[in-house]
Amino acid sequence: MVSQRQTGKKGPDDLDRMMARIKRDPRLSRVYEDEAAKKELWLQLVEARMAAGLTQAELAEKLGVSQAQVARIEKRGYDSYTLTTLRKYVDALGKGHRVEVRILAPEPRRSRKMKLAT
Predict the structure, then answer these.
(1) What is the mean pLDDT of residues 84-90?
(2) Is the pLDDT of residue 87 over 80?
(3) What burial class does residue 77 get, using C-beta atoms within 10 Å of its C-beta: 0-12 exposed, 13-18 middle, 19+ buried?
(4) 84: CATH
(5) What distance in Å separates the CA atoms of residue 58 and residue 65, rounded to the nearest whole number?
(6) Hey, is 114 helix, strand or coil?
(7) Could you tell me if residue 60 is inside a domain?
(8) Distances (CA, A) of 53 to 66, 73, 91
(9) For the chain, what is the domain count?
(10) Is residue 45 part of a domain?
(11) What is this structure's pTM?
């Protein structure tokens, strides 16, 4: 029997190990969360537009921009959104859609007690 290591294919155990490593490293965890948020936003925009029954061209017309500009906003990995752009995009989708911004406070740091030399 040929192992995953011999074929070069990654398995679920590899993913679990990678995610555990990301969770242990605060820097990697921050990067992962930032990238995940970007992915989620573009996908939410596309799904909301489709749920509104609009094509990119139709939404572009409502916004007064080109279809290419809507495509750029919906592009995976695009991260140059402004809050104004997002509001206009969502308003153009029609009633029932809204933009929500959540600011999550970081967990308080644990204070380190310093030992004084005596």
Answers:
(1) 94
(2) yes
(3) exposed
(4) 1.10.260.40
(5) 10
(6) coil
(7) yes
(8) 18, 18, 14
(9) 1
(10) yes
(11) 0.58
Length of the chain counted residue by residue:
118
Give the range of the structural domain holding residue 81, as residue numbers without chain letter.
Answer: 41-99
Q: Which two tokens stand for residue 102?
A: 């959540």
Is 56 in contact with 69 (CB distance < 8 Å)? no
In a domain, 85, yes or no: yes
pLDDT, mean of residues 80-86: 91
- Residue 91 corresponds to which tokens in the numbers above? 């308003």
**Distance between CA 43 and CA 37 in Å, rounded?**
10
- The answer to whether residue 53 is domain-embedded is yes
Structure tokens at 23: 């969770």
Alpha helices (runs of H) in the chain, residue ranges in sequence order: 4-7, 12-24, 26-51, 56-63, 67-73, 83-93
Residue 6's pLDDT band, with cuts at 50, 70 and 90, is low
